[in-house]
Amino acid sequence: MDEDVEILSFRVPRELDGARLDAALVARCAGRSRSRLAAAIKAGAASVDGVVVTKPGTPVAAGAEVCLGLPRAPAPPAPEEARRALDVLYEDEHLVVVNKPAGLLTHRTERGGERSLAELARASYGELPSVQGEDRPGVVHRLDRETSGVIVLGRTQAALDELLRQFREREVEKTYQVLVHGEPRFDSDWITAPLGRDPRSADRVAVLDLEEGGRAAETYYEVRERFAGYSHLAAQPKTGRTHQIRVHLTSIGCPVVGDRVYQARRSHAAPAPAGAPVARRQLLHAERLALRHPVSGAELVFEAPTPRDLAEWLAALRAARDA
User: Which of the residues 13, 92, 127, 140 has the least number of beta carbons within 10 Å of its own beta carbon?
Assistant: First the structure.
């Protein structure tokens, strides 16, 4: 048996006869959210009478044997290990600012079983406040797993509340470096396209009319460098919608290099320059974050250096352009 998986097993009681599989699991598995259980079912981790079931809405009969395998949460790291894993840009008793590497979750997802930045911070600094769920200690905002760069965490409840307010009121300035396919028409421009969950895929975001459920979203960009078939941009999202920069840039024909979710097949895409590494993630980096200290009110600016993969791509593109 896989020691990293917790097996939950029970027979459906008479009072749950005909209930949805996910509802039956919620009733019998205290402390686990319906969304996490539904995600596990869709991933093929559930069976009814020995048959794998992947639809959360499948009805179950009284007496049926239900089994579900859930990944166990990783053991918390030792404080010394956690501290070594964090690239701290700034800290005081109120907040900590970190340069998050690509590949690390900001906080644990409903699927669980994976270490996150928030958990490393809690192991390093002790218990942190949370207003967004116990799996999000200290979390003020988030970066996608494969997005690198500056992220801030609150260490006290007062600091967390004030930082959340600044983000909510759009008082924080965020600047991202991004490498895209193609070349924008303008050297700088606003993209003001509403965004919402893609009706064809719950895991994706799409440009939607407000009448279709889209929410207002604004991104300002400037071209830093143009290359043959590629552009290096600075992007400043004025709203904080999920996947905003990636979807907005795709909407103007400039998908992010390495983005496997929103980059459509591009038969006309320019070849990668000689010497460029394989883009194993979207080349999007939170370069700069400017905000006010949650207690003193002092203006603070934090910057994270260009990550190695993006730097190597830029060097290869410059070499090809200047050859």
Answer: 127
